[in-house]
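Lab channel / #folding
Pinned by the channel admin:
"Please post every new chain as: sequence first, then the structure tokens as a reply. Keep commentary short and put observations after the output so the thread stays searchable."

First post following the new format, from NK:
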Amino acid sequence: METFAPKTPMYPLFLSLSGLDCLLVGLGQVGQRKLAGLLACDPASVLVLERNDPPAQDASLQDMLRDNRVRFERRTCTTDDIRGKTLVFAATGDVDENRRIAALCRSLGVLCNCASTPEEGNFQVPAVARRAPLAAALSTGGASPALARRWKDELAQWLAPRARMATLMGRLRPLVLALGVETGQNTQLFRSLAVSPLQQWLEAGDIESCRQCLLAELPAELHVHIAELLYDLP
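Reply from TO:
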């Protein structure tokens, strides 16, 4: 969660971690939250460094450490640990150590999130609300992490009905593109569906109205797919 107000606007970015290597230094409460967030995004690997043994009685932590993408080592961070990593999280309980790691990252051009002194790093982790396939990230620029947490919950509620619409459009898009129609026509179709009452009907569970709308809007070649498009939406 953000904890500082940057001097300049932060650039918002959704980053795929698939196939990428990450480094987490520190495995306290903050580090554990960072590890859970990383694993949820399916990185290729996460090297976890901690000076002390992780608590054996913490079942959820032990489960994460047993993940085959995680390599845990009980030692301090070196320059070689940082090289080749996409993201580094300096989350130890030692402010000076976090600063040292952040400085190494800057010298190597590696993105670093510094838990204790965020201004030493170059990215922050926003509050993220998820309702598959949707994700909404929220930052208050460090003004109020408490408000960010509250609004994250409100965002999750707002996303819930819209996830059905996003799922439907995600199913439809490859079918439309496979027809090989001119790009402008596809754009017009997608925009027409986006402003149609489909979302409201999906929220209300009015599948018949959705079906009639798709019959009216979609090319005849796609009518055979309407049932599967509307099947088992979240």
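NK: The chain has two domains: 21-125, 151-229.
TO: also worth noting, Residues 151-229 form one domain.
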